[in-house]
Amino acid sequence: MHALVERLFPLCRSITGDGVRQTLEIIGGSLPLTVHEVPSGTAVFDWTVPREWNIRDAYIADATGRRVVDFADSNLHVVSYSVPVSATMTLDELRPHLHTLPEQPDLVPYRTSYYQPDWGFCLSQRTLDSLADGEYRVEIDSTLADGHLTYAEHVVPGRLSDEILISCHVCHPSLANDNLAAIAVATQLAARLAEAERRYTYRFLFMPGTIGSITWLARNAEAVERVRHGLVLACAGDRGSLTYKRSRRGDAGIDRAARYVLESSGRPHRIVDFSPYGYDERQFCSPGFNLGVGCLTRTPYAGYPEYHTSADNPDFVAPEAMADTLETVWEILGVLERDRTYVNLSPFGEPQLGKRGLYEALGGRSDTKQAQLAMLWVLNLSDGEHSLLDVAERSGLPFAAVAGAAAALSDAGLLKE
Amino acid sequence: MHALVERLFPLCRSITGDGVRQTLEIIGGSLPLTVHEVPSGTAVFDWTVPREWNIRDAYIADATGRRVVDFADSNLHVVSYSVPVSATMTLDELRPHLHTLPEQPDLVPYRTSYYQPDWGFCLSQRTLDSLADGEYRVEIDSTLADGHLTYAEHVVPGRLSDEILISCHVCHPSLANDNLAAIAVATQLAARLAEAERRYTYRFLFMPGTIGSITWLARNAEAVERVRHGLVLACAGDRGSLTYKRSRRGDAGIDRAARYVLESSGRPHRIVDFSPYGYDERQFCSPGFNLGVGCLTRTPYAGYPEYHTSADNPDFVAPEAMADTLETVWEILGVLERDRTYVNLSPFGEPQLGKRGLYEALGGRSDTKQAQLAMLWVLNLSDGEHSLLDVAERSGLPFAAVAGAAAALSDAGLLKE
Amino acid sequence: MHALVERLFPLCRSITGDGVRQTLEIIGGSLPLTVHEVPSGTAVFDWTVPREWNIRDAYIADATGRRVVDFADSNLHVVSYSVPVSATMTLDELRPHLHTLPEQPDLVPYRTSYYQPDWGFCLSQRTLDSLADGEYRVEIDSTLADGHLTYAEHVVPGRLSDEILISCHVCHPSLANDNLAAIAVATQLAARLAEAERRYTYRFLFMPGTIGSITWLARNAEAVERVRHGLVLACAGDRGSLTYKRSRRGDAGIDRAARYVLESSGRPHRIVDFSPYGYDERQFCSPGFNLGVGCLTRTPYAGYPEYHTSADNPDFVAPEAMADTLETVWEILGVLERDRTYVNLSPFGEPQLGKRGLYEALGGRSDTKQAQLAMLWVLNLSDGEHSLLDVAERSGLPFAAVAGAAAALSDAGLLKE
Lengths: 417, 417, 417
Known about the structure:
Three copies of one chain form a homotrimer. The first copy, chain A, has 417 residues and is an alpha/beta fold. Helices cover 32% and strands 24% of the residues of chain A. Chains in contact: A-B, A-C, B-C.
């Protein structure tokens, strides 16, 4: 996964443009993607697909011609969606267009101006401080023109048409944790799911933030109807512990499965309530949709000093952190895959497990085994109103033991779905 | 407000009689009141309006003619509703009619006998101890005769016919905190409301306790229907911190607004559950009405040693405490006035706030402003099921910020009520 | 009660057989019992009544003829439901049939093999260690043949046909706390109930565990319909504190009454959630019945080292512990007997209690009496949706005070059921 992060890192992504296309092409190398191109000007709910932005070169050069800030060094140096500029101006005239982080003087910030025509450069405070007064040559060789918004889907079909969404944003330029790590985790997850037995159909979305998810939602009313659960993946690779942010519903299936996995696994973690700020869960959880979509990150949104700066580089992303994120998602999906609600077909008293070979023969011992307890719990709570996850939570038994007991009882004809 | 307390203090109020009329006349000096006179014998639900009680003089005089206990010194000296007496008796014969506070030997208690014909005197234990055996002249020059029960209303009309009740009892004689302080706060509040923009109609009730509120409820079935929220004010001026007692419903609008204001203001306070003992919330919250009426006091019912004694005098009441009570009520009403439930008219994904000038243009910064967050929260939760107070509580944002965001979004056509 | 425990202790009970019959005959000496005999082979839900087991003698004798393990010493020495054996075998051949408690080397364990034809002996680890290699004579003179399952009922009729079940298992051989103590408590309780005024009808069940309750449930569909509350009594005499295990419903009447009594009595206690492991509450709370049946024990299931061993003898059972269990059950039933839901017939404001002699005449005193508060609470909450137990819990007043107030108000015509 880390190799993919490194490979994608240099590309200049934005909410539209060739950087996104190149990113999707590279992901498509390991995962077959369906790429969608939506023309500028297309109405998507309250929004309009913007013009497409592309950039070839940009710099600030001093009187000697030396490039003191150069897009070629890092695509963070240019405010995303900057309109073209070609001008000579004094440092003072330039200043309103320069963005720094005075409290982190060595880092270059990340800035955008998608919907307000503007231009600007981002640079370290140290670089800014080193600039002498005088005239500077300012060039941004960009294009902002009718074109397309680009996003991609990958579907892993399952036995059911019910879908689980996995979504991650692909609009950030050279920022590794935000969001190349999540892209890498999602890519690996899709490959792993393809090998596994699946009940649900999985839909992976690689989209620019906000406008991308709004566009997808606007164009896919039928797929939206099929979404049962979903997870937005972001900031998936820093060394911090995991944070799960609940869906707006707060107790959706994904919320309960994520909480169960995080709590029962012993991983350090935080579970936070939904708030309408963050990643594309904002759109999936808008009141018109209110989908059961949560968001899994490691250190969440704006919670680390490297956030939205040049320090969010591939070194900031740890392979073992990405592996842990992937494993956690895998376990959450495992609960969703196996969770279901049964009805006990022999609900009057306990059925006689012994005659079916499901119960120890020698009574009176107090060291009853977990598997037997799990069967008694599943039988007792299978009244059509408790799912296996309910049983696991109420009994305190591991979900795997409960699911195993349900399978054995189902095989013995004692349960039906 | 303290001047009003001092002016009202000497009057001999009871549940009926001229003391109540004089009190209402003085209040009426600053507030136009509608005074109601309900004849003795009128049936009001399970009760009957009692005979009217008036008193001119009362004393116990010793053998030398010296008045050892004198109504002229304090109207607390006579048990309220004492029947007329004119007799000479020994101290031992008198004793069953004498009430003291042995554990607070310098204070005179407050006693009543409204519904059981009786007579008595209240005096300090020290006075009682100083009385020599022998004969005493006992005179109570009172009248208990058909007359009227007197109460007053003041209405501050609002845009809606929905009403908020503010009620306080006017039946206690020379007790300052209980309840002249609340009378003063209510009077000031009415004046302040008259100057403000109002959605609700406010109805102020100045009534004797229990029989007064029962009489009002029995005579005002239509007004009762219009009551949306209400607050009984009592013990509004002592130096203790505020106590809000919930309505019987426990989560009525007034309960939530009071809790929000008390908790978010940082004031020391207590919130206690409803109990059917206290002031007229007992009647408003009887099961046949079950109104959303809470009770705001400073130190509550019987919670201070001066309670129902001669020590509850104007010195016991602090002007700044009354001001704080008034301000708290004002803030609670402010929440009720501004709280309402909206529907997001653009519920599919977030609406584009930027094109309406409601969102900062330059993205990528992490210092998002409170106003923007408040807009996102209001949009996200405005599904017709969450009020602005819900939004404030769930988001942790100040109610004022949430209400401001709702106003801006409403102006932009994104919300409807 | 302890005398009954001692008298029943030596009998060799199992889930069927003469030990159960003798036990019921002795109980029947103090309590008229209806004894039911259900033939082997009878289908009861998913189960079949097993063959009847009886045993006359059993031993292991060494080469000298000395009985090294002898059923005559303790009926725990034979695995319950052992098939007949008459053989000579080496110690090594015998070992798979010998059960010990290596960590409690002086104690004899209790083992059964009801549904898997098998035989075995239980002995102390010390005895086992003392056995020399060589040949042993092994005799079990038992019968496993078609016969009957035996259980008994005792009904104490009440004014209502609604029933409260009291159930205890009678299938354990020489184990005193598990379950002779509960049998003794139930027997005493029945006698005490016969003397008391009763609203409910009480049905006492003395049955073998699991198969007994399943048999009763299968044969008594109509009685099951009448069950309103129930209590399984077990382990009722050890010196530990009480444990109440909730019904599957968790908030059934019995759950609330038991919690109220345990919490308000100040007894040390534990309240635990339902689990489908333990005693016959497993069957009563199976999803097809889901009855409001909890389980009261002292130290619960498997929670004491003497559990299911020869150390659970009459000395382990304390008369004062049994008395405390009995008293607790009595108090719980007292709450259920008196708890009901009233409607206030004068719900608009408070009714005038004074004119009915229910209220102190002299007002203004702060030392209001509990009885008056209880009346106000009952009147306030009697809207058809709160029971007296609700009133007691919400008011914090003793249930007895609340029930007394309800009785007085009812007599005064202010409440109806």
